[in-house]
Amino acid sequence: MLDFVYWPISAILWFWHKVFSVPFGSGSGVSWVLAIVFLTFTIRVLLVKPMLNQMRSSMKMQALQPQLAEVKERWKGDQTKIMEETRRINKEAGVNPIAGCLPILVQMPVFFGLFHVLRSFNRTGSGPGQLGLSIEENRQLANYIFSPTDVQSFLDARLFGVPISAYIKMPGDMYEAFQPIDFTRMNIVFVAVPLIILTAVATHFNAKMSINRQRERIASGKQKSMASAQMQSQMEMMNKMMVWFFPAMIVFTGIFWHIGLLCYMGANNIWTFFQQRWIFAKLDREEAAEEEQKKQAKRATAPKPGVRPENPKKAPKKKRRGSSGNGTLSIDQVVGDGPAAAEDAPVTDSGDPDDAQEGISTGEPPVTKSKKKRKKRR
Predict the structure, then answer these.
(1) What gap in Å lies between CA 236 and CA 211, rounded to an integer?
(2) What does the DSSP 8-state code read for residue 174?
(3) In whole angstroms, what is the distance from residue 315 CA to residue 367 CA?
(4) Closest of 138, 173, 131 to residue 152, by C-alpha
(5) Which of 4, 91, 280, 305 is deepest in the core (most CB within 10 A)?
C-alpha cells in the first residue's frame, strides 16, 4: 500500500549501512544504528529549505492575525465571505498556509515507513501485521531492498546486547528470530527506557524553545498577540499540548517502539534542536536587515540638516475683472469688491485735491490732468 514510501526509506538505510560497514563491519550494531541516524539526517537535510519557508510563512501569518480577526468580526456568520477575504489577505501577503504543513506531512510517512521496514526484518510473529514465518523462512526472505544476507546481518546485530528491532512489548515467540537468544525482556527495558526518556525530554525542550521565542517576540513588540481572547485560549492549549501532551504520548507508546526507531526519534530531536537555533538566528538577521533597509530608505527621503525644504511654486495671481489697460479700476469693481478692492486699486495722483474731492462727491472716477485740460479747451 505504501511501497512508494517503504522502498525509498529502505534504500537510504541500505546506503548508509554499506558506508558504515566499512569501518565497523556489516554485522555490527553500531553500523546499523549509525545508518538509522544518518537516514534521519538525510531526510532532515532535504527538509531544511521547506522548514525555513514554513517559519517565514508562520511569521507572516502571525503578523496577519489582527487583520484576519477583523475579517471574522466584520463578516460574522458569513463563512463564504470570511474565506474569500482570508484568501485575499493571504495572497496579498504572499502566504501559503498549506505549504507550511509540508515538513510535517513528509516526516510522518518517514516515521511510519521506518517503523514498517524495521518491523519487517522479523516476520516470525503471529500478531497483527505479522506473516508468521518460520525462523529459516524469515532469514532467507528479502526485506524490500535488503537482501537475505542483509536481513541476517540485521537480526544478528546488537546494541548493548539487545537486537535493533526488539521492543519492550515484543511477544515471546518473536524472540526465536534472534539467534542465539542471549537477552531477556529486562535487557530490552534497560536499553529502551533511557532512549524513551531522552526522546520525551528532547521533545519537551524543543517545543518550549519555540514557545519561549514566540512569547519574547510578543513582549518586544516584534509580533502581535492574538486579537481575541478565544484565539489566545486556543493557542495556549496548543502550547500545553506541545510541551506536555506529546512527550507524555512518547512515554506511554514507547514500549511498542523498536530500539532502532527510538534511535531515529532521538537523532531527530537532536537535529531539531540545532536546526531551530540556526533558523531562528537566520530569521532574526533577515528581520534586522529588513528594518535597516526601511530606516535607510526613510533617511534618504528626509531633508538634509541645514537645508530648507523646497516649497512648491506659487500660482500667479489672476487679473481682476474690469481692470483697464492703465491699471485703474472702475467704480463698479470698487463698489462690488468692497474696501479690499479699493485698497488694492492703484492710486492716481492728479496733483489737485479739488479734483479728487470732485470725483468722490460725484461718484465718478478721479479726473487726471490730461482729462481736465481737454474739458477746459472744450
Answers:
(1) 10
(2) G
(3) 35
(4) 138
(5) 280
Q: How far apart are CA 97 and CA 85, in angstroms?
A: 14
pLDDT tens for the 378 residues of the chain, in order: 678 889 999 999 999 999 999 999 988 999 999 999 999 999 999 888 888 887 887 777 777 777 777 887 788 877 888 888 888 887 877 777 676 677 777 788 888 888 889 888 888 877 666 777 888 888 888 999 999 999 999 998 999 999 998 999 988 888 888 888 888 999 999 999 999 999 999 999 999 998 888 888 777 777 666 556 666 777 788 888 888 999 999 999 999 999 999 999 999 999 999 998 998 888 888 888 888 887 888 877 777 676 665 665 555 555 555 444 444 444 444 444 444 444 444 444 444 444 444 444 444 455 444 444 444 444
Residues 293 and 326: beta-carbon distance below 8 Å = no
Query: Which residues does residue 163 pair with via DSSP β-bridges, in sequence order?
Result: 158
d(CA 259, CA 327): 107
Q: What is the pTM of this model?
A: 0.70
Q: Is 231 exposed, middle or buried (0-12, 13-18, 19+ CB in 10 A)?
A: middle
- 91-113 residues labelled b (16+ CB within 10 A) or e (exposed): eeeebbeeebebbeebbeebbeb
Pairing of strands 162-163, 158-159: antiparallel
325 SS3 class: coil
